[in-house]
Amino acid sequence: MRTAHALLLAALVAGCASAPTSPPAPGPASVPVAKATPPAPGPVAPAPKSGHDPAPFSTAVALDVLPPGWRPYRLARFKKPTQYKLVPYNGSVAMRAQADASASGLQYDLSVDLHEFPWLTWHWKVPALIAGADNTVQHVEDSPARVIVTFEGGREKLPDAEQINYDLAKAISGNELPYATIMYIWENNLPEGTVIDHHMTTRIKMIVAASGAKDLDRWHEEKVNVLEDFRRVFGEEPPRIRAVGIMSDSDNTGGHAVAYFGDIRFRK
């Protein structure tokens, strides 16, 4: 059951559903994670649309529906889903995630060439850490906030052992595993820029984008070079990005977490 959960986590934002209609507008990093200075006072900052960005939360016209193209992603039927809701903030709008012993995400399908748009920026805020969470330990692998990037590539490109994982995940969840996944996470203890290998597959790498309590309960911006990160953690040139997602999970610790996400944008 735990193996299945790990593989389903790998499938987050992979999805085999067709790409959503409505592309639209306002991204993870090398070591150390590059941060914008000073921290942003709110969840969003005006910026031109690149045409390669997820639909922004900041311009949502209704708080009771997801912006076009964003959709929930359930890890498994037996997992309680995290609750996501658009909320007003300082005259704008942000996405609020609340995890109560739960795990699920939101995803947005797109296609981005990192050689053209290598930088990913986003704003986030985490009021409190999850007590006991540690992403290096399988049974307490939780994070209040993750920004997830998945990459194109078929089963035939994977090593033999990973092809078995691919087939298992598809059989269990109906979703195909992405060729590769990078998760930018908020971690309790490890320093920013640390790379954590996933416990069940070599095709997921977690990179610590924020750490500990020093930045808690305030908005700040992350800016990461996904192109260089992919080269560093996978040792090859990246294929195109197929989806991005956000996630707050506390299912392994059974804890409580709240996180706020602003717009996610790719930049040259």
What features would you describe in this structure?
The protein has a single domain, classed as Jelly Rolls (Sandwich), CATH 2.60.120. A hairpin with a 2-residue loop joins β2 (83-89) and β3. The model is unreliable at 1-50 (pLDDT under 50). It is globular. It has helices at 2-10, 160-173, 226-234; strands spanning 70-74, 83-89, 92-100, 103-112, 119-125, 143-151, 180-187, 195-197, 204-211, 220-225, 241-249, 256-267. 12% of the residues lie in helices and 35% in strands. The chain has a seven-stranded mixed beta sheet, covered by helices on one side. Strands 2-3-12-5-10 form a five-stranded antiparallel beta sheet. With 268 residues, it is mainly β.
Protein topology:
Layout: H1 2-10, E1 70-74, E2 83-89, E3 92-100, E4 103-112, E5 119-125, E6 143-151, H2 160-173, E7 180-187, E8 195-197, E9 204-211, E10 220-225, H3 226-234, E11 241-249, E12 256-267
Parallel strand pairs: 7-9
Antiparallel strand pairs: 1-4, 2-3, 3-12, 4-11, 5-10, 5-12, 6-7, 6-11, 8-9
